[in-house]
Amino acid sequence: MRGAHCSYGCSTGFDPRIRRIGDIDHYVINTNLYIACSTDSSPAMAPADTKRAFLRLLFPQPNRLGFGAALVGLVTATAALALAHPSSPLSWSVLAGVTSHRTQVELLDVANAWTSPDTQADALWQAAVDATGQQNDSERALSLLGRLLRDHPTSVHTTSARAQRAMILDRRDNPASAEAWKRAAESAPEHPRAGRWWLAAADRYSARGLTLTALEAYQAATAYPSEAALAWIAIGRLNLAHDAAVAHRAFSAAATAAQRPSTLRIARLGVATALERLEGPEAALAEVDEVIASEGSDPSLERRRDRLRNGG
Fold first, then answer.
1. DSSP state at residue 43
2. Distance (Å, rounded) from C-alpha 202 to C-alpha 230?
3. Which of 120, 125, 241, 249 could tie 157 with a disulfide, CB 3.0–4.6 Å?
4. Adjacent-strand bridge partners of 11
């Protein structure tokens, strides 16, 4: 029964001429009354029908695509802001860390899989390099390198793994670095950096007071032309206090092997020091004068010459 009034005095009829914008509130009231004040001849509107009608009133058919596009744009802008802002939990830096962690997991999955030993060794090496560099996790790197050396001793990465392990221990001032450098050099004597590894091992042994072991390592380093002069200088210094003759021979060998003027001057000063102990100040002064004449002067040579001339 259209046009009937409920007990509240409101019409229960639905006026299809309701204006879409201005009469929204009135429409809501009327549709609510349809539900509450139905009659047998005019049944109430179903709730679903009411919602659909209300949505059609708010968003007419021609504007639905526009609303969808606006919604997509809003979501896209929000996502872009979340990725760009550094404090956002979805920022690129955070995602990069997640990716790095996932890469580690994937590499270890390969290392643990039933793949070829070479593939497993490759995965362990890459994971160790990543742990050393990007993650700066020395403990994890040492663990991975130890596993690589233990499980894949014939891998092509063995030499690099030994050197990497020695470097990490050295940075941590671990006394085991000396032995680690020595093993790296012994395992690959033909490696271009083997001489440096011998020098590093010798320096660490010497710092710990292991003079004889250090001398052996320095002696091994003399076989490499690029490190020979420094190794001979170190041998001369270690022997100078108790055997000036051996020190003299070592400094003379350093002067012969020197490839840089600065290294040559240091070696010749060592020769002069050994001569002073073996033959006296006159022999040392003659050596210093010869160095200055042939190589040029520097403050250290001038100080030595002045001291020797003054009898001190």
1. P
2. 11
3. 125
4. 5
Measure Cα distances from 130 to 171, 203, 292 in Å: 17, 28, 51
Phi-psi region of 209 (alpha: psi -120 to 50; beta: other; left: phi over 0): left
Q: Which pLDDT band, with edges at 50, 70 and 90, does 206 fall under?
A: very high
Q: Note the pTM of the prediction, 2 decimals.
A: 0.64
Tokens 């033959």 correspond to what residue? 279
Residue in the block written with tokens 């709730």:
47
d(CA 191, CA 24): 85
Look up the domain containing 235 and give its range.
222-312
| Residue whose entry in the numeric block shows the structure tokens 């990497």 | 164
Q: Is residue 305 part of a domain?
A: yes
Evaluate whether 175 touches 210 at the Cβ level (below 8 Å): no
Question: Does residue 43 lie within any of the structural domains?
Answer: no
Confidence of residue 175 (pLDDT cuts 50, 70, 90): very high
Q: Does residue 83 form part of some domain?
A: no
What is the residue whose two structure tokens read 């020091």? 273
What contacts 24+ positions apart, CB below 8 Å, involve 112-115? none
| β-pair partners for 143 | none
Return the bridge partners of 5, or none.
11
pLDDT above 70 coverage of the chain, percent: 63
Q: Cβ of 261: how many Cβ atoms within 10 Å? A: 11
- Euclidean distance between CA atoms 250 and 204, whole angstroms: 20
- The span from the CA of 204 to the CA of 178, in Å, is 5
Give tens-digit pLDDT for 110-154. Answer: 556 567 888 889 989 999 999 888 778 899 999 999 999 999 999
Which two three-digit tokens encode residue 283? Answer: 């022999």
Under a CB-based contact definition with an 8 Å cutoff, are residues 51 and 59 in contact?
A: no
- Flag whether 98 is in a domain: no
